[in-house]
Amino acid sequence: MNAHSSIKAIPEIPISIFFAAKYKNINKRHLTLEKQTAVYLSYIQKIRPLALVDLHAKELFTDKTEYNDYESFIQHVFAEFEIAKKTGTADQYVDKNPFYSFHYNQLKRLSKDPNFIIIVRDYRANVLSRKSKPLNKPGNIIYNAFRWRFFFKEINKLSENSDCLVIRYEDLVVNETAEISKICDFLTLPFESSMLSERMVYNISETVVEEKTKRFVDGHFAGLSKPMHSSKIEAWKNQLSTTEIEQCDCICSKYGEKFGYLPESSNKRIYFLLVMKHLPWYLRALYDVYKEHIIYHLPIKLKLWRLKKKMG
User: Fold this and answer.
1) Which residues 6+ apart lie within 8 Å of 253 measured at CB?
2) What is the C-alpha to C-alpha distance for residues 16 and 74, in angstroms, rounded to an integer?
3) pLDDT at 285 over 50
4) What's the number of domains the chain is made of?
5) Residue 116: helix, strand or coil by DSSP?
């Protein structure tokens, strides 16, 4: 999306929601918000390679900075970001973050006319990805299947809304031009062939500020150095065991089928019994996704402290 001449795509920096509970009703410049934003972005920059994402945390605000509400404040911040060498303002901003799935109503109130693009993926492929690349989350099959289910329970509520467009990852891989064209139509923008051009990025961890986060960055951004291949779509059929597939089908198929992801296994497990058997993983997954509603309302100083601690 960032390759489109009218779009600036923001890569998983959930600043819009981070400050919204306290500052969503501002009607003039707010110096405390600006100071806290600079601190927030300085923490985020630690795990964002400068070669790809430069947030200019120390240079965001000057005497000439202007904004009169929260939406224009966020747009000013986005305009100062340098994303894959793209700088300045844009006609449209794409603010990407998976956890925005839980903030639909809040996000609608932050913008005059927002649109939501929801990209879904086969639950078994998602679970396999997290098993292979756990990063800072458990690679446990049961945990990640529950996590997928909780996300898609929310997504299912949104999928029929007129301001939401659902795109299947598998369709994007197989027919990239058609699916990206569909997204452009939804955003009332012309399709540009540059969106299909080479997008590989290599050795990005070399420009990470903190040495100890290089391994995280190499894993988190690994997909940027690999092309999309249709052969990977059903890799889970060979790389997950029969039992793991049965467990995923039991936990996820209720919502998976609504998006065209049909269960593979014929051995039907009872969901309630699986929850009882793996109750600690169920509760952990439930907490990890729904804590977003709690964190949204926390004081900013506490949220900044949590972020600093998380970033090390």
Assistant:
1) 123, 261, 262, 263
2) 7
3) yes
4) 2
5) strand
User: Could you write out the three-class secondary structure of 2-60?
Assistant: CCCCCEEEEECCCHHHHCHHHHCCCCCCCHHHHHHHHHHHHHHHCCCCCCCEECCHHHC
Distance CA 121, CA 234 (A): 11
Rounded to the nearest angstrom, the gap between the alpha carbon of residue 207 and the centroid of all alpha carbons in its chain is 22
Instruction: Indicate whether 264 and 191 sit together in one domain.
Output: yes
Are 204 and 227 contacting, i.e. CB atoms less than 8 angstroms apart? Answer: no
Q: What is the pLDDT of residues 236-260, one digit of tens each?
A: 999 999 999 999 999 999 999 999 9
Are 179 and 171 in contact by the 8 Å Cβ rule? The answer is: yes
The answer to the question of residue 74 being in a domain is yes
What is the C-alpha separation between 290 and 254, in angstroms, rounded? 19
Q: How many CB atoms lie within 10 A of CB 157?
A: 12
Per DSSP (E only), the strands in the chain are 7-11, 53-54, 82-83, 92-96, 116-120, 164-168
Residue 103 shares a structural domain with residue 121: no
Residue 184: is its pLDDT beyond 50? yes
H-run or E-run covering 233 = none
101 with 125, same domain: the answer is no
Single-letter residue type at 75:
Q
CA distances from 294 to 101, 136, 145 (A): 15, 20, 22
Asked if residue 87 and residue 23 are part of one domain, the reply reads: yes
Residues 253 and 165: their CA atoms lie apart, in Å, by 21
What is the H or E stretch that residue 278 is in?
Answer: none
- Which tokens belong to 58? 């120390």
- Determine, yes or no, domain membership for 297: no
Tell me, yes or no, whether 238 and 186 share the same domain.
Answer: yes
Helix (H, G, I), strand (E, B) or coil at 260: coil
Angstrom CA distances, 121 to 128, 148, 154, 173, 201, stand at 11, 10, 14, 11, 23
Domain of 164?
115-291
pLDDT tops 90 at residue 196: no
Task: Report in angstroms the alpha-carbon separations of 24 from 72, 114, 121.
Answer: 11, 15, 32
